[in-house]
Amino acid sequence: MMNKRGFMVKFKFISSMEFTFSLFQTIFTFLFILLIIKIFNRSKLNHSIPNLPPGPRKLPLIGNIFDVAGPLPHRTLGKLAQKYGPLMHLQLGENSTIIASSAETAKQVMKTHDLNFATRPFLLAAYIIAYKSTNIMFSPYGDYWRQLRRICNTELLSSKHVQSLRPIREQEVSNLIHTIFKQSGSEINLSELIYALTYGITTRSVFGKKSRHQDALISVIDEAIGLSGGFTLTDLYPSSKVIAFLSGLRPKLEKIHQRLDKMLDDIIQEHKTDEDGKGDVNHLLVDALLKVQECGNLEVPLTNDNIKAIILDVLAAGSDTSSTVIEWAMSEFLKNPSIMKKAQTEVRRVFSTKSTVAETDIHSLDFLKLVVKETLRLHPPAPLMLPMENREKCEINGYEIPMKNRVVVNVWAIGRDPKYWEEPERFNPERFINSSIDYRGLDFEYIPFGAGRRICPGISFGLANLELPLASLLYHFDWKLADLTMKNQDLDMTESFGATVKRKSVLKLVPTVVHPPA
Ligand code: HEM
Question: Which long-range contacts (CB under 8 A, 24 or more apart) does 250-255 make?
Answer without folding.
Answer: 250/124, 250/128, 252/227, 253/124, 253/125, 253/128, 253/129, 253/224, 253/227, 254/128
